[in-house]
Specification:
Blueprint lengths: L2 E10 L3 E4 H4 L7 H8 L3 E4 L6 H16 L6 E7 L10 H8 L8 E4 L5 H16 L3 E9 L9 H4 L4 E11 L4 E10 L2 E4 L7 E5 L1 H23 L8 E4 L4 H11 L9 H4 L6 H11 L8 E8 L1 E10 L1
Parallel strand pairs: 4-5, 4-6, 11-12
Antiparallel strand pairs: 1-7, 2-3, 6-7, 8-13, 9-10, 12-13
The structure holds oxa(dethia)-CoA (UT7).
Length: 312
Amino acid sequence: MNGLKLLATGRALPSQTLSNDDMSRYVETSDEWIGGRTGIRQRYFCAEGENATTLAIEASRLALERSGIPAAEIGCVVVATSSGEYVMPSTASMVHGALALDENIPTLDVGAACAGFLYAVEVARGLLLAGGRRYALVVGTEQMSSVLDMTDRTTCVLFGDGAGATVFELDTEREYVSVQGTRSDMAIRSGCPSITQKVPMQMDGQAVFRFAAAIIPKCVQDLFAKGGRTMDDVDWVVCHQANERILDASIRRLGGKEKFYKNIDRYANTSAASIAIALDEMNEQGLLEEGQRIVMVGFGGGLTWAGIMLCI
Ligand code: UT7
């Protein structure tokens, strides 16, 4: 119990769309290879003036408006990102300022790569429980294009930029089950270990594929064991969107094909933003209804994973 009711969602995307053919201007690749190996058909990349902060603010403003909750009642802001505009100040603190939220609330960023959004939900729930407030703004935002090596075809075609935001209400009567895990590994890395040694995105794709295809079924089965549920009890499974083949491999293990939401074709891998973007798309299409049981699974650099099963 002590679950989270999903009150509203929002998403924001950069103004530039790049097709797979556009990517072949940068590297030797093709729509056939990218589409066939990953399911990706296009991605969004930030243009001048757009970044993980501007996207997070736009998505958050939408979610807050749609929630109908006064800004002053938001009890915490948790933003998942691995490609924020700044390391300091946090993206969450800038969202807080742009939305003129109450001064006496915690705001922080969470770095757990592509699993980040679900870690952020978990942290937000903990902050609400500890702080006695009811509403949380939880965001996933990424400018993955800022960490990509546009000469490396094994990574640059896979990622995209975007943000998704959610407003949750703490509800003591609502079901909530979560699991997390870590297998310390450098199979995916990017960032700035020192000013003189910037590390663009590097990834051992095959190792991460094997990890992901095994960890989604494990995570879902762990959630079911912990919550005493089966796939029959679930309305939707929303996984981090990294590769359609990873999702299909998981579906073969778990069943419930029609419950798995997929949108990687339009966004590519938006890392910590992907699950929040998917939730907003589903909401927009009228697929989400109060009381539905949703399973969400994130996995990525770290290597980390997280699963949450909740009734929205
Ligand atoms: O969100 C974080 C989690 N990340 C993931 O989940 C990513 C998991 N991994 C994957 O999705 C897949 O491993 C990739 C999509 C990254 C790669 O697919 P793959 O089927 O494992 O391909 P591969 O790495 O075995 O490469 C096959 C061939 C290679 O050529 P050779 O050595 O067989 O001649 C690559 O050089 O494909 C080549 N290749 C490309 N060809 C055209 C690699 N990238 C490209 C490309 N265009 N963009």
